[in-house]
Design a protein that fits this description.
Elements: H1 3-9, E1 14-21, H2 26-40, H3 47-64, E2 69-76, E3 80-87, H4 107-114, E4 117-123, E5 126-134
Antiparallel strand pairs: 1-2, 2-3, 3-5, 4-5
Length: about 140
């Protein structure tokens, strides 16, 4: 997926992308990037949730894919912010059931609970895992389980 592909999916969106190493340490850069974009769009109140969720996506890519580089996308179409992470693995993410005292495995549950929508799209050379947050004050349609 290229930045042009992001624009094609939402032609009216303000979009930006950034490449970074596929390492857990890149989560800090991703959080700063997402926070800066949200502040630029006047959506700083979404930062806490967005930073937590992008950390989960970056951590999953670093932990489970073996990729060298990830690409972070941020878009805003006036109603919905989409944050996406592209990696080179074609293995799709799966929410797993975890025990209450498990030390890991809850990341995608957090993404599911805190985002408006989330998903993963298979690409020719990997996948893109994304989540969306709605602009505060916008009407939220019913969410499917």
């Amino acid at each position: 997926m290229t930045s042009a592909a992001v624009a094609e999916t939402s032609p009216d969106a303000d979009a930006e992308w950034q490449d970074m190493p596929c390492r857990p340490e890149s989560a800090a850069l991703a959080r700063r990037t997402v926070r800066a974009r949200l502040n630029a769009w006047g959506l700083g109140q979404l930062s806490e949730s967005a930073e937590l969720l992008v950390t989960e996506l970056i951590s999953n890519a670093a932990r489970h894919t073996g990729c060298q580089t990830i690409r972070l996308y941020t878009t805003f179409d006036g109603l919905v912010v989409r944050v996406a992470v592209r990696d080179s693995s074609r293995t799709m993410p799966v929410r797993i059931h975890t025990d209450r005292d498990a030390e890991s495995g809850r990341g995608l549950h957090l993404v599911h609970r805190l985002s408006h929508r989330w998903g993963a799209d298979l690409q020719p050379l990997g996948k893109v895992v994304w989540f969306e947050l709605r602009r505060p004050g916008s009407k939220k349609p019913a969410r499917l389980p």
